[in-house]
Design brief:
single chain
């Protein structure tokens, strides 16, 4: 954070930007209370990709706003006029292994691994429970990120601080 009034911009990445990255964006924007501004994107969202409806339902059930959430390509955030990111966090193992764009400003990076709650051929209630579990797992790390003191969010410390949360 460059000043006390500017939020830390955080981009959550996943392959399709339909589940885990959407959950993380919504959570951080809610919990971060203006200290953080979260975004999400995917390395290869499908044509007409939308956030997973079960993910949106789980967010709404938890009292987290879903207005404005939509799937998009990470290319949006590599453009010269895009918001400058301070931290980029991959939330799926596929996206973590891909070659990312060159991000303006060379932000800190971290990988927080979560299984895909939408994967598999299971009944809808089992998938809904997988989304709930993923939401709670992401929330634990987001709570820890939000609780970090300002010194741990400074550019020189941010990468190690965010990566340390991957084991929390």
């Amino acid at each position: 954070m460059t000043t006390s009034t500017q939020p830390l911009n955080v981009l959550f990445l996943c392959t399709h930007n339909s589940a885990r990255s959407i959950l993380a964006e919504a959570l951080l924007n809610t919990i971060g209370k203006g200290r953080f501004k979260a975004y999400s994107a995917g390395s290869s969202p499908r044509a007409n990709q939308q956030p997973n409806p079960l993910g949106l339902q789980v967010l709404q059930s938890a009292g987290i706003a879903t207005a404005g959430l939509h799937s998009k390509s990470w290319d949006v955030f590599a453009a010269p006029d895009a918001p400058r990111m301070d931290l980029i966090i991959t939330v799926c193992d596929n996206a973590a292994g891909e070659v990312c764009p060159i991000w303006p400003g060379h932000p800190a990076t971290a990988h927080w691994s979560y299984p895909d709650p939408s994967a598999g051929d299971t009944p809808e209630e089992a998938k809904r429970e997988a989304f709930r579990a993923t939401l709670h797992a992401i929330r634990r790390r987001v709570d820890l990120l939000c609780a970090l003191p300002v010194a741990k969010l400074a550019p020189a410390a941010l990468q190690s601080s965010a990566r340390a949360l991957a084991t929390s």
